[in-house]
Amino acid sequence: MSQPEHFEMLIIGSGEGGKYLAWHMAKSGRRTAVVERKLIGGSCPNTNCLPSKNEIWSAKVADFVHHAGRFGTVTGPTATDMKQVQARKRGMVEDMIAKHLELYKASGAELIMGTARFIAPKTIEVELNDGGTRVLTGERVAINLGTHATIPDIPGLAAAAPLTNVELLELDRLPEHLIVLGGGYVGLELAQAYRRFGSRVSIVETGPQLAGREDSDVTAALLEMLRDEGVVVHLGVKVLRVEGRSGQAVSLQMRTSAGDQTIEGSDILVAAGRTPNTSGIGLDIAGVTLDERGYIAVNDRLETSAPGVWAIGEAAGSPQFTHVSFDDFRIISANLTGGNRTKRDRLVPYCMFTDPPLARVGLSEAEAQRQGIAVRVAKLPVAAVLRAQTISETRGFMKALVEAGGERILGFTMIGAEAGEVMTVVQAAMLAGMPYTGLRDAIIAHPTMAEALGALFSNLPAR
Ligand SMILES: Cc1cc2nc3c(=O)[nH]c(=O)nc-3n(C[C@H](O)[C@H](O)[C@H](O)COP(=O)(O)OP(=O)(O)OC[C@H]3O[C@@H](n4cnc5c(N)ncnc54)[C@H](O)[C@@H]3O)c2cc1C
Ligand SMILES: NC(=O)c1ccc[n+]([C@@H]2O[C@H](COP(=O)([O-])OP(=O)(O)OC[C@H]3O[C@@H](n4cnc5c(N)ncnc54)[C@H](O)[C@@H]3O)[C@@H](O)[C@H]2O)c1
Fold first, then answer.
1. Tell me: the pLDDT tens digits for 134-161?
2. Domain boundary among 272, 292, 308
């Protein structure tokens, strides 16, 4: 065994929270190392958020071009060159990796490329990517391992070598018919994008609706939007088996309420949720306990069962968003410097980058009902928003929840153009504790999408 090297802060995984913690600790003078097996900067800039949003924007351009005539621009025959789509995306990812390396260098944190495994409490052995091993110990250890796509236990699926988001976002050819297993975030964003590039796309979802966490009016709007673009959606099905090989020919047999059906496709994408990267790396040896789903068990301060060991991001069971992994960093760094920050009562917003996007902060109607919280609900169709008329993007609606007996905003959902930006305006009001009347009565620039918040909150039923 190599001689152990000691660090004041040792971080496993260069994800969002892990890298910020490393840079922060190193800059404040602590000897810090990060061990990363592959993705410099984690999955967001390499394989997940940013590459997907990059390709989704290429698909948006394709959609603009397909409908250019509507806006008065005359085009001839058009086609999507997936090699160029890939080239733009790869260029962005390479730039990000270079920037991350500069930030590592400037911070003084050592980035060690290799796979970590615990061999004793607070002690890891790293199998270096360049060969050889190093043994590292940390006075404090943070674990930021992330997740990978779950491959459901369906006969023939694994043997079909299905695509996950990682492989799909690396394809430089267009699938002729892409079968998408799962109608959640990954499935919906990528199904729409590949449809716009020109693939035939079929979504197969076990649940009764798309985006299962959302209210039924929201998911009905999503469904209509996707079907209008020619995406075929199968809901409430049981997948029986998969045959063939993704990239060549693949068939999926499913049980539906109308009987058994088979879909023949060229490729299959698995987008059926995530599995934490917590197995086989000696977390038991480190004294780090997992919960029943295999995520690292943490308290509100993100402390694990092992003293001096924290967990960050998806592997810690935090909501699966980059901005949450970043907030996990803020919790840990605050607590390491005498603060008392917790993840309790965090207001976690999100935006699904379908087009138009779906954004939410706070409660949905169904959640309010489940929690027995009485609310007043205001709705406004996006078609009523003047800005939406100017850009011919009138699909969707806004919905706000306000406490029944007061003026506190409890939730906001929007499906429509610029939903993420409009939602953030409402989130800011919620964080400031501003009554809904503050937004209702504000002067908001005309014509913006956020201007419609005045009309939305004016629609609220009286107490
Ligand atoms: C297709 C897709 C699109 C998404 N889009 C969005 C979006 O638009 N917005 C959003 O907020 N979220 C999005 N997400 C979710 C988001 O990517 C994650 O929540 C986010 O990256 C946070 O991850 P993390 O910090 O927990 O871990 P990660 O960033 O995954 O980092 C974990 C790191 O640990 C490394 N690692 C694992 N095991 C070891 C080991 N034993 N030794 C060394 N290194 C190891 C991994 O290589 C990885 O780099 C998307 C997810 C997917 C799949
Ligand atoms: N824009 C964003 O912020 C963004 C984008 C992509 C992913 N993400 C994050 O990544 C997480 C993972 O995304 P995801 O889409 O993999 O998971 P998800 O949980 O959002 O959706 C998975 C879907 O697959 C369905 N499913 C499960 N097993 C199935 C099966 N055997 N056959 C058919 N359908 C099946 C589920 O019912 C569910 O609807 C998300 O929850 C989200 O937090 C965020």
1. 999 999 999 999 999 999 999 999 999 9
2. 272
Atom of ligand 1 lying closest to residue 318 CA: 26
User: 350: annotated binding-site residue?
Assistant: no
Work out the average pLDDT over 384-396: 98
Distance between CA 160 and CA 245 in Å, rounded? 4
CA of 88: how far to CAs of 85, 170, 196, 343, in Å?
Answer: 6, 12, 17, 37
ipTM over 0.90: yes
**Residue after which a domain boundary falls, among 336, 366, 386:** 336
Contact status, residue 252 vs residue 267, Cβ threshold 8 Å: no
Cα angle 12-16-22, degrees, rounded to a multiple of 5: 55
Pocket test for ligand 1, best of 21, 56, 93, 145 (most atoms within 8 A of CB): 145
- Give the pLDDT mean for 444-458: 98
Instruction: Answer yes or no: is the C-beta of 187 below 6 A from any ligand 2 atom.
Output: yes
Q: Helix, strand or coil for residue 203?
A: strand
Averaged confidence pLDDT in the chain: 97
Q: Which residues pair with 397 in a beta bridge?
A: 381, 415
> Quick check: CB of 320 below 6 Å from ligand 2?
yes
Q: Give the tokens for residue 304.
A: 């694990």
Are residues 34 and 140 located together in one domain of the fold? yes
Query: Looking at the structure, do residues 142 and 283 belong to the same domain, yes or no?
Result: yes
Find, among 45, 44, 39, 22, the residue nearest to 106 by Cα: 22
Task: Say which ligand is closest to the CA of 128.
Answer: 1
Whether the full predicted model's pTM is greater than 0.95, yes or no, is yes
To test the pocket of ligand 1, the residue of 37, 38, 44, 170 to mutate (highest count of ligand atoms within 8 Å of its CB) is: 44
Is 187 annotated in some ligand binding site? yes
**Claim to verify: residue 135 and residue 189 sit in the same structural domain:** no
Q: The CATH number of the domain where 208 resides is what?
A: 3.50.50.60
Q: Is 317 in the pocket of ligand 1 (CB under 6 A)?
A: no
Between CA 284 and CA 307 the distance in angstroms is 13
- Establish whether residue 272 lines the binding site of ligand 2, counting it when its CB lies within 6 angstroms of any ligand atom: yes
Q: What is the domain extent for residue 220?
A: 158-272
Q: What share of the chain is helix, strand, coil (3-state, %, to 5)?
A: 35, 25, 40
Asked whether residue 350 is domain-assigned, the answer is: no
Ligand 2 pocket residue status of 51, Cβ below 6 Å = no
Residue 3 is predicted with a pLDDT of 83
